[in-house]
Amino acid sequence: MSAVPTELAAIAQPTPQELALSGCWTSRGIGEVEHQLASVRVPAKTELIADGSLVKALDTAGAWTLQKLLLRLRNEGVTVTMQGLQPQFSRLLEVVAKQVSDQAGTPAPAAIKPPSALERIGRSVASGFEQSVALLSFVGESAVALTGSVTHPARIRWRPILFNIRRTGFDALPIVGLLSFLLGIVVAYQGADQLVKYGANIFVADLVGLSMLREFAPLITAIILAGRSGSAFAAQIGTMTVTEEIDAMRTIGIAPMELLVLPKIIALVIVLPLLTVFADVLGVFGGMLMAQAQLGVTYADFLDRFVKAVSVTAYLVGIGKAPVFGLIIAVVGCFQGFRTKGGADSVGRQTTKSVVQSIFLVIVADALFSVAFSALDL
Amino acid sequence: MQSVLEKNAEQKNEAIIELSKVSTRFGSHVVHDEIDLDVRRAEIFALIGGSGSGKSTLLREMILLHRPDAGSIKVLGNDLGNLRDDEALALRQRWGVMFQHGGLFGSLTVKENIGLPLREHTGLSDTLIDEIAAWKLDMAGLPSEVGAQYPSELSGGMMKRASLARALALDPELLFLDEPTAGLDPVSADGVDQLVLTLRELFGLTIVMITHDLDLLWQVADRVAVLAKGKVQGVGSMSELSKIDNPDIRQFFDGPRGRTAQEQAKEQPQKTPAAEAQPGKPIARPSSKPK
């Protein structure tokens, strides 16, 4: 046993009354022989002698396979005598015997049929519905907790709020700034080609200003935060659920809603508009650089036109959407975290769901805003 | 009937694990200070010591999860200090480890968890792997329905047993158990005692365990090493250790629990012969457990 034996197991039938076993009947050795065993045929009522004197090693997998063969032969009416096996091997074989016949006696559990297409659709609709209801009730719970905090301001936990503001807001400044700057460049660059054709170079300020302020800045900020902070919320709360930290918190008498959820929601609702302003500035700055480089619009001309083209309303429309996006991201992130059940696998799944769902809901909300604003002529 | 034990009697003193001058430090904190230790073939060896005495670290060093800062560890004739990747892989297939909290993969069912080493390292058919996994499950004393469940659906004790079943999947020569009975009900803990003895009897397994279970130490362990203050304070059977006058060792005997276990061990003939677990009988299933 000191070295891993490598000689493969083998079985031969020199005469109809004899079976010769040899080699290493171990999990590594029986891979080949396993498939041959089914073809071992012995006529009924034969007195078969199985010779195991050449078996060099036998482990549980080998004993199992061998015992299964013997059981099958016996069931077919063959009298099998095992001989020549080393004593410790035959002992192992005996231990296995009972197990093999037990397992053979109990019918294998019926294979679960894969669900039909209709069943799958039904299940996913049901789970989608269940999840929407759960999300709504989570929103309700958060609202109740928020009302509780507002009526008893002493219960508001400022420290986690400030901590979350730093984590989700201040720490996100570089990435939000860089991406909106690049977005501004892209918008101006794409527009430049078209504008040059009509000699309408100066309108690049309208293009960059309106699109960045109204749509792109709040959207790109929300998407970055959904990926950056929403996922972190889900993973944090999910891991805490798995390690029973949430249960511990409840038993100590701290409401997880107050300590974990509300600070995150409040922080994101504050942070997202601020980050949007930052994104506005850098996006327009990027567009302005591009306007100068591609269209020859000077900074002074650009800013002059910008003031005329972009109303305060456009600016406020963009900023106004941001808190709603923040709310969506925080609520979905925390919600998915709390739905974690089981282990590491589930944490990953819920985190993914939180990002996908919050981005989806942010874009849906943005579409609804567009419809509403156009109905209101804003 | 000649048992593996007797066959191995002549090699009994062969050391399977040899630690020489093993030192480990975490920063300035010295966990092990030149530890020397031998584990012999087919013995049940227990490591004990207070919290933070470095038992788990020592175990992790034996199973290639942690590298000692100095000294050498030899397992099954391989020096762990300079092992090629393929040698390490071959060595890893010759031991089984049962982790304290199971270490089961959450994305696989219990049966898939147990079959994983077989699927990974052998060319056996899926049916055979499933059958063997079901048997190992039974060996560890779990009902067959558990096989289809996910680890998150199991109780702590069941997870341990499933983890033990996985450790046994490849018929290891060496079995490491980290707190095998912690968190188990007394009936299941007795089952583990029996199982450990039966495994050694049947397969000639060498078992290294970390445990605080005094019954397990008195009834099952052949030799026990006491770790404290970075040193091995004493090695020997529990009755030998009980005669040593060293405060670090005395604490395991002088407490109320220590005394009770000691008295119990004296009343019963030490070490129920494992051969009594009759061949063919489900091994180590607690009798009260519904089938």
**Portion in helices of chain B:** 25-40%
Straight-line distance between termini of chain A: 83 Å
Count the E strands of chain B. Answer: 10
Amino-to-carboxy terminus distance of chain B: 30 Å
Structural class of chain A: alpha/beta
Over the alpha carbons, how many angstroms does the gyration radius of chain B reach? 19 Å
In the sheet with the most strands of chain B, the strands line up as 6-7-8-3-9-10
Number of strands of chain A: 4
Q: Rg of chain A to the nearest angstrom?
A: 35 Å
Order of helices and strands of chain A: EEHEHEHHHHHHHHHH
The 3D shape of chain A can be described as elongated
pLDDT averaged over residues of chain B: 81
Structure description:
The complex is a heterodimer of chains A (378) and B (291). The N and C termini of chain A lie far apart (83 Å). Chain A has 12 helices and 4 strands, in the order ββαβαβαααααααααα. Chain A folds into 2 domains: 95 residues, Transcription Regulator spoIIAA (2-Layer Sandwich); 227 residues, no CATH class. Chain A is an alpha/beta fold. Chain B is α/β, with parallel strands linked by helices and 291 residues long. The N terminus and C terminus of chain B are likely disordered. In chain B, helix 4 packs parallel to helix 6 and helix 5 crosses helix 6. The longest helix of chain B is centred in the C-terminal third of the chain and has 18 residues. Classes of the chains: A alpha/beta (378), B alpha/beta (291). Chains A and B meet through helix 2, helix 3 and helix 12 of A and helix 5 of B.
